Amino acid sequence: MRVSNADITFRLIYSIRYRQNCQNDNFFSFNLTIRELTTPLSLHQDKLSL
């Protein structure tokens, strides 16, 4: 699946903000991976609702 630069940029910024809000959650603290960047955005909707 091709991922646009804008989509990756959005996910990078969002993941950093999400990480800052969940500093006590070790699972999400440093969990930005290529897999996250390449999964369909719909799979991230549960996180976006936060």
Please, could you describe this protein's structure?
The protein is mainly α and 50 residues long. It has one domain (5-39). 60% of the residues lie in helices and 0% in strands. It contains four helices and no strands. The protein has helices at residues 5-21, 26-29, 34-38, 45-48. The longest helix is centred in the first third of the chain and has 17 residues, at 5-21. It is globular. The termini are far apart.
Feature tags:
about 50 residues; mainly alpha; 4 helices; globular
Distance between the termini: 26 Å
* Poorly predicted segments: none
Structural class: mainly alpha
Q: Determine the mean pLDDT.
A: 62
Q: Which bin fits the share of residues in helices?
A: 55-70%
Radius of gyration: 11 Å
Percent range for β-strand residues: under 5%
Secondary-structure element sequence?
Answer: HHHH
Query: What count of helical segments does DSSP give?
Result: 4
Largest sheet, strands/sense/barrel = none
* General shape: globular
Q: Please report the total strand number as a whole number.
A: 0
Number of domains: 1
